[in-house]
Amino acid sequence: MESQKIKLGIPKGSLQEYTLKVFKSAGFDIDVPERGYFLKIDDPEIECFLLRPQEIPKYVEKGKLDLGISGDDWIFESKAKVIEVCDLKYAKQKIKEVRWVLAVPQDSKIKSIKNLKGKIISTEAINLVKDYLKKNKVKARVEFSWGTTEVKPPRFADAIVDVTETGASLRAHNLKILDTVFLSSTKLITNKAAWQDEWKREKIKDISLLLQGAVRGEEVVNLMMHIPGEKLNKILKILPKLKVPTIRKLASENWYDVTIGCEAKSVRELIPKLKRMGCQGIVEFPVSKIVS
Amino acid sequence: MSKENELKFGFPIGAWQKDSLELFGAAGYDINFDENFQKIEIDDPEIACVLIRPVAMVSFIEKGFLDAGISTEASVLEAQAKIVQICNLEFLKPVPSKTKIVIAVPKDSAIKSIKDLDGKKIVTRVPNIARRFLEKNMVPAEIIYSDALNEPLAGVVADAIIEFSRTGNYLKAYNLRIIETIFESSVILIANEKVLKNKWKKEKIESLGYLLKGARLAQEYAGLMLHASNEMMEVVLKVLPSLKKPTVTHLRGENWFDVLTVADKKEIRNIIPKLKKIGCTDIVEFPLNKVVL
Fold it and tell me: Which CATH number fits domain B100-184: 3.10.20.30, 3.40.50.720, 3.40.50.10490, 3.40.190.10?
């Protein structure tokens, strides 16, 4: 049988670092050469390409790629017909979702969406904005921007629709946010042909399982502690029920070793509480993957 | 100015700023420092953060302007303030050399010991500490305060400096020699005395202490897992550090045990070869996020 390969598109730019990190915790090492778009991955069944996230959905749709990672925004913008395998929402990243906002100059007369009528909106995501205007029944001119969209108002545009994280860049350019246009998260996508190929589907499902496990692993930690016998029941009651705790009696003592999994975020409340209730030797350690 | 359930917390400007923010991150907080606006954002609405010089912070905390903060032992001594130390965070991360306050003079100076400082000019960042140290040693000298880079001043405008030194690189760069180490200064979590009478604030500060110290210890420790047979157990338990009671579990249907513990990474590098010689198998070391003993 000839060796089959999954052709995978990795997004270049803002999603790149996060994507490589998730693949690494999922067990795949990917090497990024300084130039070029051929990536080296330590799985002979995968061929890896570094591409702009704007282009990945189209290439997946056309079958140039079997599998890709991109955002909802670019999937929508390119109107590509793709199959969403899974969502890769990433907890540790400060921004779980990419936010596209409508912004205008601080002193603009545009106070609401309705005021956009007949105005010029500059954006990198034309279809996203056209759809937004249509939903709000407002007619305006949407102009494509090649980048640095935030510098365009007021001379080159009346308003912009752009991605924002903290809003700092918008503020620095004297712009204020009027509305959220689109919330986008990261998706693993494939096409019909790949999905109907049994070998490819199984391989894609395996990759998806590991990636999701890695994403989930970021959100979860293990907590190990020693609990005195007389307090065991009381403390077990307050422990989170993410999974069944492992309870072991310490040899020749009335102490128990209890190991649990819990949400990383809950630990800063939980550890001081457990300490006050009399637990000793509380140890938190990271989880690489959680597959339930 | 005071809100019911809000802790007013100070972060140290300067040498300890970056590492204290990172330790908060390791303790479980998403904490962001906006360089442009010098603003700290933390994902806990119960903590209001400000950045402040460590010495000023000690006075702020003593007078109750702030509830708690991260400062240093030297700052407490310098400010001569009455505050409560919650925990010692050493140097916020594993470091090969400690931060000390030293008296340094140019390499070719005739000053060989403290006694030789009699009547000399000394520039220092910590004038109160310097003055008290010299008084205690009954050496009268002229002390001038300066909080910029003081090393270049030695031998030019001053006969000696009393300054912080960690790696000694600055002293070397300016051809200085240490004649005396006054003391070692750790980074500490401190709180206002009266604030600790408020139950909510006390718990909040204590919890921060557990988490910060826990994250700090986890940098030095690692988890250790191994299999040992019944005959090896006595020796194995002797080799393992007694910091935390090891968890010993009987492996199903065998004469072997699974042993789980945590240990100092520096000890582990000696322990693992020993365990291997005893005959232990499946020795696994794993990283930790927090250790609260």
Answer: 3.40.190.10
